[in-house]
Amino acid sequence: MASLDDLMSRIPVDQVAQRLGVDNATAETAVRAALPTLVGGLDANAQNPTGAASLLSALGKHSESNLAEGEVDVDGINTEDGDRIVSNVFGDKKDQVISTLGSVNGAGGNDLIAKVLPIIAPIVLSYLAKQIGGGAGTNTASAPQGGGLADLLGGLLKNAGGGSATSGGGIGDVLGSVLGGSSGGGLGGLLGGLLGGGKR
């Protein structure tokens, strides 16, 4: 079953750490902070028909990627593509999201978060493409206006945090469960106001 934990398990944190020149603990904290935020941003955009159509198109381009099969080679990830994904998801809120995530204790600061997001974004899209299309590409007919996609994204966040992903509280629950303590909730509240700033 698709879940944030399953998605997290497909990201080779040790390879991320090696590529970025940090220790595994720092890389894992950064990925665990960035991952639900990225999924939350995708979910916010999928609530809008135009955003959902744009996202489904992007998933189609990633449906045949070997990243969807769990065969992730971080050195082979196109971070320029990843950066485009991140920019499309967060729009003009991108820098604010990076700054907020960079303030998480142990996440390595803004510079590291800015490098982590483009690495994990193609992995996330390939994972979603696999879940939506069964590995054979996306079928937009099965997800009118992105409904199936929105359900999948909302389910990922709900399974992680026990709440709806459509509000700041939902993403706050997720981040709180991932990061622990009040910092996760406060971060989630702030990010909840930022999400949905991407392409529509």
Automatic annotation (TrEMBL):
It comes from the Bacteria. It holds the Pfam family DUF937. This is DUF937 domain-containing protein. It comes from Rhodococcus rhodochrous J3. The lineage of its organism: Bacteria, Bacillati, Actinomycetota, Actinomycetes, Mycobacteriales.
